[in-house]
Amino acid sequence: MKLAVVILAAGQGKRMQSALPKVLQPLAGRPLLAHVIDTARALQPHSIHVVYGHGGDQVRSMLAEARVQWALQAEQHGTGHALMQAMPAVNDDELVLVLYGDVPLVRVETLQQLLGLAGPQSLALLTVELADATGYGRIVRNARGAIEQIVEQKDATAAQLAIREGNSGILAAPAISLRKWLGQLKNANAQGEYYLTDVIAMAVQENFKVTPSIAPTEAEVLGVNDKAQLAQLERLYQRRRAAELLAAGVTLIDPARLDVRGEVTVGRDVVIEPNVLLEGRVHLGDRVRVGPNCVLRDMRVGADSVIHPNCVLERSEIGEACSVGPFARLRPDSKMQRDSHIGNFVELKKTTLGEGSKANHLSYLGDALIGARVNVGAGTITCNYDGANKWVTTIEDEAFIGSGNMLVAPVRIGLRATTGAGSTITKEVADATLAVARGKQISLAGWQRPVKQPKPVK
Ligand code: UD1
Ligand code: CA
After folding, report:
1. What is the pLDDT of residue 13?
2. Residue 80: helix, strand or coil by DSSP?
3. Same domain, 49 and 137
């Protein structure tokens, strides 16, 4: 059967105490709903439908790229009512998988297993064994263990409340049957809502097959209702990502102190120290070491490079055998070539640092093209901005830039040229030339220091 995934995401999420709709709250830097859409997409369905309502414009604009079909639920009258809004766009011969926009950790494998149990004559329901089932609908089974119905917490008897098997909310059933059952839902219950869960009893009434599948872990079906649960799920998600990296052979000094918000690919024998944040697309080559407290966003790091502690590195490329930091910053479009070094308090922006070149202390190098084996002295700044335009500084191979230079762009420092410490270079320095551009030192022998004047009498 063709698969249609329907994601219910219209609920408000009052308990978030936030102007941001619940399904847009970030998990690992991305909206909860985006995670659920990714999971849905991995099932390669025929279509994905999102039922939205609360904060509708915001939801649609933040997920404009998502390539899903949107169904508006203008007023929230329950999960059954929500699913109904998507059904006009679903064909009778399809199998419908219902997911929740606020249940982001369910795994693709778990859903595949569930889908394997559903078919034209069978409804599959994902349930979960809970230590504390508070808040969940309870799965009521008969003496033979077959499912009879789901009772919501607010409608349950004391005996039903004692049931430990909860409804995850996730189910799969043929569209043609769902459509019929949804049409028969009543809202005569404690919440005055049309409960999707009531279709279970309807199916049972018709001797339609209802097959439960028990979720392998509670974490997979945890919903997010408040900030405490959001924080809890964030940690669970991060433990998963850390486990993936460990399985790939990465040494994580503390798996609990790593945050991954994106896709990380790694070579062999990578080491990551505590408190590292990896965002976007990050590649760490063989034997790369990332020191404590570093942020890497959209970075490629070549083999054998070392990132020392406290670096912030963004959208740049570090070649092989480079050394970065401590306390270094790479801003977008920078490129460190093989065996180049930047040290403490060095910032590169849109700058290429050539093979074997070094800028070890306190420098700003922006819009610069720096050749191979160049040494940039401490405290050097490329003055790349004239208040209106950005200009390029070119430093050719084997140049030696003295400490404390101001290189006023556009300017070129020639091959093997040298600049004196403290120079403000405004004109081209020819190849193999020494340029010194600073006030000449004056020494006055026997000069007397001023003496303190007596205080005037008031
Ligand atoms: C629901 C289930 C419950 C289950 C629990 C698991 C029903 C009646 N109850 O309860 O059995 O144990 O999930 O977490 O289905 N939504 C809409 N429109 C609405 C109402 C809800 O889109 O009118 C969406 C919400 O955004 C959310 C999902 O449906 O993504 C679940 O809604 P929620 O109100 O959280 O249901 P629960 O009371 O938790
Ligand atoms: Ca819920």
Report:
1. 85
2. helix
3. yes
Atom number, ligand 1, closest to the C-alpha of residue 11: 26
Question: 94 and 166, same structural domain?
Answer: yes
Q: Is the CB of 229 under 6 A from ligand 1?
A: no
Atom from ligand 1 closest to the CA of residue 100: 30
Residue 176 lies in a domain: yes
- Whether 446 maps to a domain, the answer reads no
Q: What is the whole-number distance in angstroms between the Cα of residue 183 and the centre of ligand 1?
A: 18
Residue 199 has pLDDT above 90, yes or no: yes
Q: Compute the distance from residue 35 Cα to the ligand 1 centre, in Å.
A: 18
Taking CA atoms only, the protein residue closest to ligand 1 atom 33 is: 11
Query: What Rg, from alpha-carbon coordinates, does the chain have?
Result: 32
Ligand 2 center to 336 CA (angstroms): 48
CA 15 and chain centroid, separation = 23
Residue 166 in contact with ligand 1 by CB distance below 6 A: yes
Is 274 part of a structural domain of the chain?
Answer: yes
Q: Are residues 199 and 284 in the same domain?
A: no
What is the extent of the structural domain holding 18?
A: 2-221
Does residue 196 have its Cβ closer than 6 Å to ligand 1?
yes
Percent of the chain with pLDDT over 70: 100
pLDDT tens readout for residues 310-350? 999 999 999 999 999 999 999 999 999 999 999 999 999 99
Q: Is 128 in the pocket of ligand 1 (CB under 6 A)?
A: no
Question: For 379, left (φ over 0), alpha (ψ -120 to 50), or beta?
Answer: left
Q: What pLDDT band is residue 222 in, cutting at 50, 70 and 90?
A: very high
**Ligand 2 centre from 223 Cα, in Å?**
6
Determine the residue of 79, 214, 222 to mutate for testing ligand 1's pocket, defined as the one with the most ligand atoms within 8 A of the Cβ atom: 79
CATH of the domain at 147: 3.90.550.10
List of residues 6+ apart from 314 with CB closer than 8 A: 295, 296, 297, 298, 299, 330, 331, 332
- Supply the residues annotated as catalytic: 361
CA dist., res. 204 & res. 151, Å (int) = 14
> pLDDT per residue over 104-155, tens digit each?
999 999 999 999 999 999 999 999 999 999 999 999 999 999 999 999 999 9
Clarify whether residues 247 and 213 are in a common domain: no
| Ligand 1 contact, 10 CB (< 6 A) | yes
Kindly compute the dihedral angle of the four CA atoms of residues 254, 255, 261, 262, in this order, to the nearest 10 degrees: 110
Looking at the structure of the chain, the number of domains it has is 2
Residue corresponding to tokens 């690919």: 265
